[in-house]
Amino acid sequence: VQLQASGGGLVQAGGSLRLSCAASTRSFSSYRMGWFRQPPGKEREFVAAISWSGSSTYYADSVKGRFTISREDAKNTMYLQMNSLKPPDTAVYYCAADTSIGTGTRINEYDNWGQGTLVTVSS
Given CB 3.0 to 4.6 Å as the disulfide criterion, which of 11, 33, 43, 98 pairs with 78? Predict the structure, then answer.
C-alpha cells in the first residue's frame, strides 16, 4: 500500500491543523493505521493509532485531549485533527499502515510508511 500524507504547514501556538493520509489500496479497512512524528534532531515517536474498525484509538500522553485520530474507509483516508497546538508539536508527521495484529503504538509494528508532512508551530 502507498500512503500520502498532507495537511502540514505553519501555525501559531493554540491553532489547529488537520492532517490527512490517503492510501492506495482496495482493502483499506484491513489496515490499522497510525501517526508518528519526528521533531528536529530527535527520534521518531508515536502520536496516535486507530484500529481496523475505528473502534479503538490510542494516543501518546503528550497529545491526549488535543489530537483526534479518525478514518473514513469510503475515502481510503485517515485523519489527525490537531488542536491547541504547541511549539513542541513541531515535527515531520508520518502516517503508517499495517495489517498485523497489535495496537500500532510502536514503530516496528508497521511495514508501510508515507513520506511525511511538516508541521511547524510558532510561539
Answer: 33
Residues of the chain above pLDDT 70, percent: 100
How far is it, in rounded angstroms, from Cα 68 to Cα 49? 10
- HEC string of 89-104 equals HCEEEEEEEECCCCCC
pLDDT score for 20: 98
Give the count of beta carbons closer than 10 Å to the beta carbon of residue 122.
11
| Cβ partners under 8 Å of residue 14, min gap 6 | 84, 85
State the burial class of residue 41 (Cβ atoms within 10 Å of its Cβ: 0-12, 13-18, 19+).
Answer: exposed
